[in-house]
Structures are given as structure tokens and as C-alpha cells.
Design goal:
FAD, flavoprotein, 4-stranded antiparallel beta sheet, single chain, Butyryl-CoA Dehydrogenase, subunit A, domain 3, Acyl-CoA_Oxase/DH_mid-dom, Butyryl-Coa Dehydrogenase, subunit A, domain 1, binds flavin-adenine dinucleotide, oxidoreductase
């Protein structure tokens, strides 16, 4: 299917991002997978070449263009190359809007130039050991003391958790008020009492640092409150649709890549004296998967346009997230089957795709929570 989403300037951007991946990521990614984390230099190089903060204002070193198509290109090309260690999508797609929409002028001057240059790597910490889907149940607490907030609690599964220089922490600042008692506090590297725990050993995304974080009497200056006190939950709800679409963008790209590699494989691999692609079952499976991939692509591209127009609803994003990621997981499983025993070998890209994909239906809100969001909007009771 011919995509109609992009203009010539996007194609140029894609080409230069591909070059960046070939030069600075491809030679290092296997090493990063072994060490469980990417080297910081790749962030600096990405910043130098304009791949961080494309939507941030130019005065802070950003690209000055609010157009999610650039974010989509970064995500798509990273997925296509299986460079799953890069935390750029979290930085550009998830964190950027928090900082550009909620930070005051003084905060922007402190954080945005480093965000765009790659000197400040970012993370967001919502999930806790005791609560993930039920965000309202978080226990991390901040109490005001003079000009500071005193922060206590722990977070887990935090992407960029080890490399991050600033972390947007969701904390209870007024427990009496329930969901209206949350605030966002920006915790910076080196603040006393802020510790990083384990870099977690995951099934996939091996080069991505996903960590536990703990906060013991961390004095966070009041000047690091992001957005409005007590509005943290609302700020989260406003930003989650873009995060979810970003995950759907990765799903669509992964489906295309895995379908392509499987078509290639079944053309080459022979059984019973002929290519396995000539069996009717193979043709039917791949015909189904090609149809589903196209359907996901149409939906995702349409929702990127809607996001750019400010029209992507919470429900739309939930639909894109659960459906594309479930389709991705199913497609990769069936493509792996067509690879036979080789599909189970880590040296084959389909095996890596399989391991990297599984989390897609979980993070950013699980499939079940997405269906709850959509179901609620149908006003069934
Ligand atoms: C690799 C990775 C990276 C991550 N990165 C981040 C990050 O950067 N920042 C961050 O804050 N978090 C991050 N997360 C956390 C992620 O968002 C949570 O894991 C996710 O929201 C699910 O929460 P949970 O793990 O506590 O599962 P639970 O909430 O315990 O859910 C367990 C199961 O119960 C189901 N369930 C829960 N409630 C309901 C319900 N009401 N109805 C039906 N079913 C329900 C869920 O769908 C799921 O199947 C990451 C997770 C992973 C694995």
C-alpha cells in the first residue's frame, strides 16, 4: 500500500536518520544488548544531528516543528533495524509534551537545551511495585517543607531508568483528594536520597535500561514542580494518547518488517523439494497477515494525522494501542512458526522480534485497560 502521510521533507529526514542508525547504532547494538544499556554517546550524537526534540522550540535547540510524522519516522526506522535499545521514542514522544506544555520559562531554560542536545536523558516514573494499571493506587508521597517537597517511595519498570538525568515522578501530594491529589515532580540526577536499583533483566528489549528507582527523603525544590499542584493525574491523562499512538506506530512498523523477512524466508527455504512459500497454507497465512498489516497501517497513519490536527481522542488512542499490539504479537508468532526451528534461534531476527514484541500489549496501559477505556465510552450502563 502506498502511504500518503509524508511530504518530501519527511523522506529526507528518514534518509538521514537511517544513515545515523547505520553509522552510530548498527555497529554497537549487539554490545549494548550484552551490557543491558546503550552508551550515552549515542544520545549526544542523536542530539547533534537533530533527532531529539524535533518538536521543541528552536530557541532551546529543538527542531521547532510540531509534527508527529517526524517522531513516527524515528520510531519506525528504529523498529525496522531492531534497534530496540534506543529510548528516543520515550524521550521524544512521551516526555517532550510534558516539558513543552507544562514547564515554566525558568524550567524550560534549565532542561530543554540538554533535552535537545542529548545531555539530559529523560524518564517518567508512574508505575510502582504495588500498582501499575491502577494509577490511582500509587503510594509515592511528597510532603511540602519550606521551599522543598520531601519525596518518599519507589518506582519500578522505568524506561531509561539508569541513564536518565531527570525523572518526572508521579507523587501523591494531597492523599485526602485521591486522584486530584497527584503532582508531577522532576527529580534530578544526584539529588541526595535518589537511588537507582537493579537494571531489570527482561525477556526482550535487552539494550534498554529498565530500572527500579527509590526515593528516600529526597528534597525536591518547589521549583521542580511540573505543571499544577494536584493536577498530576489530569496532566497524565492529557499526554497518554500520544504515548499510546507511539506504541502503535512501533507495532505497525514491526508487523511490516516481520512480514517482509518472513516472505523472504519462505521463498528461500525448501521442504519436500520446493520452497515452503509454495504450500497453500503458507500463502494463506501470509495473505491473512499482509491484510492485517495493511489494516493496522491505515489506522495508525490516519491517527497520526488526527494527532497532528489535535483530534486524537483518548478512546482512539486506546483502540490503536490494543489492536495494533495484539495484531503485532499474533503476526510475529505466526511468522516465527513459518521459520520452523530457525525461528527459535536467537540469531534469526524473527526470534528477536518475538522477544521484543511481547511487552507491547503491556506497557503504556495493558490491552485490558485499553478495552476498559473504550468500553466506558460506549455508555453501556
Ligand atoms: C519494559 C517495560 C517498560 C516500562 N516502562 C515504564 C515507564 O517508563 N514508566 C512507567 O511508569 N511504567 C513503565 N512500565 C510499566 C507498565 O506501564 C506497567 O507494567 C503496566 O501499566 C501494567 O501494570 P502492572 O505491571 O502493575 O500490571 P497489573 O496492573 O498488576 O496488571 C496485571 C494484569 O491484570 C490486568 N488488569 C489490571 N486491572 C484490570 C482491570 N481493571 N480489568 C481487567 N484486567 C485488569 C492487566 O491488564 C494485566 O493483564 C514499563 C513496563 C515494562 C515491562
Amino acid at each position: 500500500m502506498e502511504r500518503t502521510l509524508f511530504e518530501p521533507e519527511h523522506d529526507l529526514f528518514r534518509e538521514s536518520f537511517r544513515k545515523f542508525l547505520d553509522q552510530h547504532v548498527a555497529p554497537n547494538h549487539a554490545k549494548w544488548e550484552e551490557q543491558g544499556i546503550v552508551d550515552r554517546e549515542v544520545w549526544l550524537e542523536a542530539g547533534k544531528q537533530g533527532f531529539l526534540g524535533m518538536a521543541m522550540p528552536e530557541e532551546y535547540g529543538g527542531g521547532g516543528v510540531k509534527d508527529f510524522r517526524y517522531n513516527a519516522i524515528v520510531a519506525e526506522e528504529s523498529v525496522r533495524g531492531q534497534y530496540s535499545g534506543l529510548g528516543f521514542a520515550l524521550h521524544n514522544d512521551v516526555i517532550a509534551p510534558y516539558l513543552s506544555e507544562l514547564a515554566n520559562e525558568e524550567q524550560k531554560q534549565r532542561w530543554l537545551p540538554g533535552f535537545c542536545s542529548g545531555e539530559i536523558i529523560t524518564a517518567i516514573a508512574m508505575t510502582e511495585p504495588g500498582t501499575g494499571s491502577d494509577l490511582q493506587g500509587i503510594k509515592t508521597r511528597a510532603v511540602r517543607d519550606g521551599d522543598d517537597w520531601v519525596l518518599n517511595g519507589s518506582k519500578t519498570f522505568i524506561t531509561n531508568g539508569i541513564n536518565s538525568d531527570i525523572v518526572i515522578v508521579v507523587a501523591q501530594t494531597d492523599p485526602e483528594k485521591g486522584a486530584m491529589g497527584f503532582s508531577l515532580l522532576v527529580v534530578e540526577r544526584g539529588m541526595p536520597g535518589f537511588e537507582r536499583g537493579r537494571n531489570l533483566d527482561k525477556l526482550g528489549l535487552k539494550a534498554q535500561d529498565t530500572a527500579e528507582l527509590s526515593f528516600t527523603d529526597v528534597r525536591v525544590p518547589a521549583a521542580n514542580l511540573l505543571g499544577q499542584e494536584g493536577q498530576g493525574f489530569i496532566h497524565l491523562m492529557q499526554n497518554l494518547p500520544q504515548e499510546r499512538l507511539s506504541i502503535a506506530v512501533m507495532a505497525a512498523a514491526a508487523m511490516e518488517a516481520c512480514l517482509d523477512m518472513t516472505i523472504q524466508y519462505v521463498r528461500d527455504r525448501k521442504a519436500f523439494g520446493k520452497p515452503i512459500g509454495t504450500f497453500q497454507n503458507t500463502r494463506f497465512v501470509l495473505a491473512e497477515l499482509a491484510t492485517k498489516t495493511t489494516a493496522v497501517r491505515v489506522l495508525v497513519d490516519r491517527f497520526i494525522e488526527d494527532l497532528n490536527r489535535g483530534k486524537l481522542s483518548v478512546e482512539d488512542a486506546a483502540m490503536a494501542k490494543w489492536w495494533s499490539t495484539e495484531e503485532q504479537v499474533e503476526l510475529i508468532d505466526r511468522c516465527l512458526q513459518l521459520h520452523g526451528g530457525y525461528g527459535y534461534m536467537k540469531e534469526y531476527p524473527i526470534a528477536k522480534a518475538y522477544m521484543d514484541a511481547r511487552v507491547q500489549t503491556i506497557y503504556g496501559g495493558t490491552t485490558e485497560i485499553m478495552k476498559e477505556i473504550i468500553g466506558r465510552s460506549l455508555k453501556l450502563s
